[in-house]
Amino acid sequence: MQGATRKRPMRPPITIEMMRALKAVLNLDDSFDACIWAEASCAFWGMMRFGEVSVSSRDAFNGAKHLKRKDILFGYDRNHKRYARLDLPDAKTAKRGEIQHVFLTEQEGLCPLEALDNLRRVVPAGPDDPLFSWRDTHGDVRPMVKSKAIERINAILSAWGWGTAFGHSFRIGGASFFLSLGINPEIVRLAGSWRSMAYETYIRAFEQVVSLHMGGLMARV
């Protein structure tokens, strides 16, 4: 029902296989690629809009609206598991002046916390510098421009035989992955900061795990 009211075509989801391809190709010792991997992993696992991890142009960075290095907190939960909290100064679904939190947890092989740790190592920066940044040939810290990041990502995905991805593909892909594995939809809605049932339109790529949930049923009869 909600899909019928959409004005834009449904965006394709980023899948786990695509994430693995990105990590395999990107040079995580290079500041530009390290930044892209941190953006991709945070956008996927945090179900973030790509505009929340990038800027429209170099001059568009605004510390009052965009994530800075000091807007990230690492901690441990009650189960002694490490997590990261990103404090979005300005989010689409937040009230004016309200900080929205994105929580990231450890993930085997494609860990967003490791990606953030690597970014801090490869791109040292001050607390008020952009969180997702890289260093140019002059050593200047620069925010990652969305179009440049998507261009690099699509070059890799195309080389592996996949079609074009969009910024929103990461948010869709993360939600699809969690929902297809049976994660409580309310947890997905809260983690992705959806105010309504709109997240239901993000149940994609179920064919990737359909056998896990619906296969081999005759063995139970």
UniProtKB/TrEMBL annotation:
Keyword Cell cycle in annotation: no
Please name the InterPro entries in this protein's record: DNA_brk_join_enz (IPR011010), Integrase-like_cat_sf (IPR013762), Phage_Integrase-like_Recomb (IPR052925)
One biological process GO term for this chain?
DNA integration
Superkingdom assignment: Eukaryota
- Record's keyword terms, sorted: DNA recombination
Q: What is this protein called?
A: DNA breaking-rejoining enzyme
Specify the species: Mycena metata
Which Gene Ontology molecular function entries are recorded, alphabetically? DNA binding
Q: What is the lineage of its organism?
A: Eukaryota, Fungi, Dikarya, Basidiomycota, Agaricomycotina
